[in-house]
Write the structure tokens for this entry.
Amino acid sequence: MSQPTRAEWEARAKALKIEGRAFIQGEYLAAASGDTFDCISPVDGRLLAKVASCDAADAERAVQSARATFDSGVWSREAPATRKAVMIRFAALLEEHAEELALLETLDMGKPIGDSLNVDLPGAADSLRWSGEAIDKVYDEVAATAHDQLGLVTREPVGVVAAIVPWNFPLMMAAWKLGPALATGNSVILKPSERSPLTAIRIAQLAIDAGLPAGVLNVLPGYGHTVGKALALHMDVDTAVFTGSTKIAKQLMVYAGESNMKRVWLEAGGKSPNIVFEDAPDLQAAAEAAAAAIAFNQGEVCTAGSRLLVQKSIKAKFLPLVVEALKSWKAGHPLDPETNVGALVDGRQLEQVLGYIQAGQDEGAKILTGGKRVLEETGGTYVEPTLFDGVSNTMKIAREEIFGPVLSVIEFEDAEEAIRIANDTPYGLAAAVWTRDISKAHLTARALRAGSVWVNMYDGGDMTAPFGGFKQSGNGRDKSLHAFDKYTELKATWIKL
């Protein structure tokens, strides 16, 4: 089946009707204040929609809706098999509306339409379907007791969940939260980033169309310091789940302590090392993976392989391969199906990335390729994928999360030094190791303080693999059955027979 051309995508974009209101108790509503904010496309600077700017009053409405619906049992006490059927229908509706949702995603945050359609949409649908399929296969426990006693260990939905998701994978990150949270019977209030709220708003209606009762899923667009803070401090929100920066993750933990000790589950920043040893089985494959690890999604990826650790003995041979591989990642119009690097999410992000590129030069690192803003005449926010050599792990570009296509090459002598450099960061989200030595692969992987480690590849795994970080990259896990832990409470029931 052929996919639309750029001209066809642009025609659809012009005809697209975009919903910008909040979604509470099964219907679209303006913010209680009537306030809106402009949703601007990073593709070309066009105004996409006036979006409801929700605040504490809207948070109160949504929490009341979610709580009443939860307490009614219309979803929370429904049979797992029934919830499963709804989740599968929800996933199917995402697939039926794939082109519309992909277009919204691309226009809203700038990623290539090919990625929106072929990566984000399938990933989101898969998360919803997988969680739905799993829920009637997760069993409770019977404790080992004396013959005249019965000990039950059961899971119950936690209640009202506030899910605060980022702007880089708006739909997929929402689905990673919604899949297990809804499947386990909770009511959810979804707060998308104000920088890319459109797909979250749209799927709220699709959830109703799939059979989700009104009030089970509410969507509140708006700013973190207004509606996000209100949800985090609300005394009737039982759990807050978050993907985003470490700074905000820490603040959410403070808010939990200041309110009702709500559970807080966090997936935060990263500065992931990609370690290439001299005995890597395929240097060309390693180079291509290193380029993709920093250029995919414009580098706006929490697991981006932003530190490329290369053994000194192969550096002269390996770096030209990386430079060449990175040249195949070129910024272009996101609605062109051939584009593999789109626009950064907005002007603020563009300035941040360009600021880091300048900082790298100021600290003495050398640009081997990229480093400039491009396509400025379009009105969009584009930057070339950039490779720095001569980087030490003390430099700003090696220590701070840039969230853009900026790769720092750091040289090492042996495995011990590679591990020391790799772990010398506040973060611990992901890492990769390239070697043909099975013992070195295992020992290095075990030594790396990261939630995901890939060997002879970058960014592997599927829904069966848990995703999350060590250290200041957060706690808890998305994906896999481990995700259900975040959205349930364990209850021990002891019965004297």
In short: The two ends are 63 Å apart (CA to CA). The mean pLDDT is 98.
